[in-house]
């Protein structure tokens, strides 16, 4: 019996500490985070958004043309047939100049953005649990405050899912870039593939700025909706104290 009481006390202590932490986050944490992200977006790295800053050489040279050693030069008809049928590209055994590095400027920006995304996911999860603990048991009538809790909870869950999807966006960039770079290695004489890598890097650069802006906006919206409805979120019913879990 004593063991069950001890467990119940630990659970209640966890709930109380989570509620305290969440309320501290709402009052002080969110405003600080919004100011921090505004300052970050105002730095040259994000404010200027010069695409030339993320261009990087692929370190894949165009190979020398293969000279025909036959005594008899190929006829025009034979050349046309070979050109039409030979679409296998260059067999890549090894890159003479070494490996193709990731885009260093993009990776530096990702190092800045990923912790911000993770913070939003963790903060959203904390708020979600806080509201869940505030929801009273189901009763007939006097449920207007409960509906506010449910709407706010749905908004927080949406923000959490959206933030988690930002991580997937980053991983998809590296996969897409690797595929295009492999095309450059196989068809080094086709400039369109090289240009495609540049375009992909520029797109990711802009996407990372947009992600950072969206994270800032989500912190603003969450702070706004919670502060405006703080009283109803904490006490959805006048007799809330009697009906908490």
Structure write-up:
The protein is mainly alpha-helical and 245 residues long. Helix content is 71%, strand content 0%. It has helices spanning 2-41, 44-47, 76-85, 104-134, 144-186, 191-228, 230-234, 240-243. α1 (2-41) packs across α4 (104-134), α4 runs parallel beside α6 and α5 (144-186) runs antiparallel to α6 (191-228). The two termini are 21 Å apart.
Entry summary:
With 245 residues, the chain is mainly α. It has helices at residues 2-41, 44-47, 76-85, 104-134, 144-186, 191-228, 230-234, 240-243.
N/C terminus separation = 21 Å
Shape: elongated
Structural classification: mainly alpha
Largest sheet: none
Mean pLDDT: 85
Write down the Rg. Answer: 29 Å
Number of strands: 0
Total number of helical segments? 8
Q: Helicity range of the residues?
A: over 70%
Strand content bin: under 5%
- Helix and strand succession? HHHHHHHH
Stretches with pLDDT under 50, minimum 5 residues: 240-245
Key phrases:
disordered C terminus; elongated; mainly alpha; 245 residues; 8 helices; single chain
Give a topology summary.
Layout: H1 2-41, H2 44-47, H3 76-85, H4 104-134, H5 144-186, H6 191-228, H7 230-234, H8 240-243
Helix pairs in contact: 1-4, 1-6, 4-5, 4-6, 5-6
């Amino acid at each position: 019996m004593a063991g069950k009481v001890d467990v119940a006390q630990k659970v209640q202590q966890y709930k109380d500490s989570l509620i305290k932490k969440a309320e501290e986050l709402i009052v002080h944490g969110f405003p600080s985070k919004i100011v921090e992200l505004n300052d970050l977006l105002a730095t040259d790295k994000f404010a200027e958004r010069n695409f030339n800053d993320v261009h990087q050489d692929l370190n894949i040279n165009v190979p020398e043309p293969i000279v025909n050693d036959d005594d008899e030069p190929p006829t025009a008809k034979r050349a046309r047939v070979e050109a039409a049928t030979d679409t296998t590209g260059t067999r890549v055994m090894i890159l003479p100049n070494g490996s193709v590095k990731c885009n260093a400027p993009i990776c530096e920006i990702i190092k800045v953005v990923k912790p911000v995304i993770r913070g939003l996911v963790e903060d959203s999860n904390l708020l979600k649990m806080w509201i869940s603990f505030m929801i009273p048991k189901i009763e007939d009538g006097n449920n207007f405050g409960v509906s506010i809790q449910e709407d706010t909870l749905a908004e927080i869950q949406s923000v959490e899912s959206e933030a988690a999807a930002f991580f997937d966006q980053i991983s998809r960039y590296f996969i897409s870039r690797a595929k295009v770079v492999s095309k450059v290695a196989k068809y080094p004489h086709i400039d369109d593939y090289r240009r495609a890598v540049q375009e992909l890097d520029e797109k990711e650069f802009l996407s990372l700025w947009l992600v950072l802006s969206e994270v800032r906006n989500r912190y603003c919206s969450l702070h706004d909706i919670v502060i405006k409805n703080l009283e109803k979120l904490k006490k959805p019913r006048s007799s809330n104290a009697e009906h908490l879990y």
